[in-house]
Design goal:
Elements (H helix, E strand, L loop, with lengths): L15 E7 L2 E7 L10 E9 L2 E11 L1 H6 L6 H7 L2
Antiparallel strand pairs: 1-2, 2-3, 3-4
Length: about 80
Amino acid sequence: MCNLCASYCGHTNDNTIFQYASNGITLATILDNRQANAKGTFPIKVRVTYQRKRIYFSIGKSLTLVDWDKLPDTKSKTLLARMGM
C-alpha cells in the first residue's frame, strides 16, 4: 500500500486516471486527496514505479474531487482549460 493514497483508496485505482507501463516502469496520474489546498482543490501527481519503488511528482495543477471524477468522460473545454490543458 503506498503512502500517498493509503488514507483514501487503499491503493485501488479510484484516484488513477491514466496508467502506462513499459519495460518495468509504470506511470500513473493520481489525485492526492489527503489534504486540500486553500482553494479547496487537490494536487495532481504523476506516480513513477520502478522495481516496486514509487516516486511522486507534482505537475503543478489541481482539481476538485468532482472535477477529477468527471475528467475521464469529459469533452468540456472549460474543464480542460481550468486544468491548463
